[in-house]
Fold these 2 entries.
Entry 1:
Amino acid sequence: MEPSPDELRRAIAVLAHELRNPLSVFRAGVDLLSTEDSQQAQIKEVLLRQTMQMTRLVEDLSDISRAELNKLRIERRPLRLQEVVEETVDGLQHVLARRRQRLEMQVSTEPIWISGDRVRIGQMLSNLLSNASKYSKADSQIDLRVEIDRGRACLRVRDFGIGIAEDDLARIFDFLSQCESREAIEHCEGGLGIGLALARQIAGGHDGSITAHSEGLGKGSEFQVRLPTISRDAWESIPELDNRTFTPCRVLVVDDNRSSQLLLPALIGRLGDHEVEVAASGEETLEVLAAFTPDLILLDLGLPDMSGIELARIVRGMELMTETRIVALTGFDNEDFRELAAKAGIDAYRVKPVSVEMLRSVFEELNLRGPTSDSPIAGVSSS
Ligand code: ADP
């Protein structure tokens, strides 16, 4: 029996949750890699980008599981379109090589600046190019044009493959929609009909548009994305990398995952000279708290002996812990959990993967100051 849409959504939600834990470990590990050696710095850059890409994909799965596709998160920054194009094409070389397909690129040499989300634009282009490859024959040609056209940044992906019937053109951008021609089914390689729906959300989220053209079955297809451009000056206003540290705090990490126990204290170390203790269960937490009063508890919600929510309630009832801030670090991206957490006295809720950037935002949001600091300004210093 086919799974119902609700069952599918539940399965996707579980998958997204399960993927967040290993991803969190990758992200923390990448953040901790050294950048002193220039070759290592390059490797770190590549790993970081791919981990971010995976993170966004997992977030998409979550979006889908909540059927909130029209609420896709898009973080825009000034961006040179050609850079994303190069990166995306590089990442797809193996797909094209596998089918011996030629990519004919006509990319404007004049820099094209847009206000865009690097990962999302890459994801959209990657979907279009993979489709062009998937829905055409081996040894065929795919054209990619990137230019300014009538004042807008314009990306065109054209293939000479199976084409799209007129009736289907109107609905291929719908969520979970796939063409029903024999050729389309033969070529879809287990796709779910999500790629173009995401592409439409991404183009729309950038105040742009995406359209599809085909003369009909067997006549190839062309997809065109149009995005507003910005002037180059906006690029120069991007802030430098944030290296600030915070006045020393006492932090308790509660997580039963061994990799997190190792990596979280190291990540926290990047934010200053903090005193960090680790506990792997509810019971161990209570033992540690008998001798250690943390300013901050980073709490995984899925513990072996009790739920993190239950543990937070117990901690909130302890006399010495009234000033302690509790932050849930979890793979559950779910409104019900957020609400339960807030009711149990949890101050902030963050969805894995954990990164230096995320922990910094926690320290900033909670305005954390160590017990020894009596500075009137938030305990932030530059290093
Ligand atoms: P899928 O994972 O099924 O490829 P998409 O959302 O990317 O999902 O595409 C939706 C449908 O649109 C596909 O199932 C396919 O039938 C059709 N389609 C997309 N791109 C092309 C193309 N370049 N040529 C022919 N058909 C395409």
Entry 2:
Amino acid sequence: MSGKRIVVLISGSGSNLQAIIDRVNAGAIAGEIAAVISNRASAYGLTRAADAGIETRVLDHKAFADRLAFDQALMETIDSYAADLVVLAGFMRILTPEFVRHYNGRLFNIHPSLLPKFKGLHTHQRALDEGEREHGCTVHFVTEELDGGPAIIQAATAIVAGDNADALQQRVHQLEHRIYPLAVEWFCAGRLQLEAQGVTLDGDLLPGSGYRLQE
Ligand code: GRF
């Protein structure tokens, strides 16, 4: 198959991985998932990948002396697949500046909030606690700032009376499964660039919060 070579990094369930697999298989993405790499052998996403006939690798961070040693092994593994795009899909590791710089402009993450709001963990509960009117998710290029790189696309859901963190998380997850494959699709079609002034789609500079998926 021609097209871009994608490597996906996971630590857990891999439902975002599944959404990307489904869009690759549907022919929407001009690329293939060359490998799925997990830092946890028990990650269910490895089963999803194997079921889809995708090569899997486990790299246990606990087997390495420090963060940089792990990241260097991870880079070697990723580069052995000649990745054009590296997709973090629930990869629960903080990455070193060395890693982030190595994949500058070709490293994606998805975060369950409308960045720059609610970086870090427990975003759904925090959105409720802050009395937000809406909540959502963001796909962004990764830079050295944690959960802080330039946004590519966002999708939002209204917070309604009686909402709780579980319900909100489920709705946001559904949105994640729409925007993550779309961002990958754009990248693989050569439509998306990280430039000095921000992210461009088809040559047009996107707003700081990225493209906004309309309901
Ligand atoms: C998602 O909520 C994503 O936003 C966050 O990690 C979670 C991964 O879920 N970064 P899954 O493994 O894709 O189901």
